[in-house]
Amino acid sequence: MAGIHRGVTSILQKKINHEILTFHCIIHQEALCAQTFPAEIVEVMNLVIKIINSTLAKGLYHRHFKDFLEEIDSQFSDLLLHNKVRWLSRCNVLQRFVLCLREIKTFLNEKSINHPELEGEEWLQKCNLRVDTTKKLSELNLKLQGKGNSAYTLLEEVVCFDNKLLLFVEDMESGKLLHFKNLKQYRDETNATIDTNYFSIALKNKG
Q: In which domain of life is the source organism classified (predicted)?
C-alpha cells in the first residue's frame, strides 16, 4: 500500500499530482510496540507456549491430559492453543494457563516432566504480570478493529492508551496493583513480596 514506487498511495499521488498523507497500519504499529517486552517477560510466554504445545501436540498425551482434568473435576476441560497473530488469543491462552496451573503442574509431575520455573516465585510474578499487560493490549487491539473507525479515532485510542501507561506505572510503584488484577490476586493469595521496582522499569521501557 505505501511502497515508495509501486505502492497504491505512490501511484495515486502521481495520478492526481498532489501529495497525500500516508501512514502505516495503526494496528501493525501497536503489534510491533507490543513486542518490546523485556526478554525475561518474553521468556515467560515462550515457556507457556512450549508446555501447551507439548501437551496438545500428541493425540494420546492430549487425551490423557483431558481425562485428567475431567477426573479431578477441573473447571476447564482443556488448554487453549496460541495464535501469534491475534492478541486476544494470546491473552486467553495465558489466562487459561494460569487458572489451570495447579492441574498442569500435577499432570507434568505424573509424567516426570520437570519445569522448575513453574515453582519459582519470580517466574510466577512475571507470568501474572504478563497476563495483565496482555489483557490490556488485547482490549486496545479490539478498539482498533471494526468498520467505520476513522484514522483520527484510532490514533486517539492509541494516545489515550499511551497516557494510561503512566497511570499503570504509578499504580505499580504505589504497590496498590489496582490495574493488575492477576498479579494482585497472586500477591494476596501467597503473601508474596512483589518486586514493584522491577515491574515499574519494565512498564516504563514498554511505554
A: Eukaryota
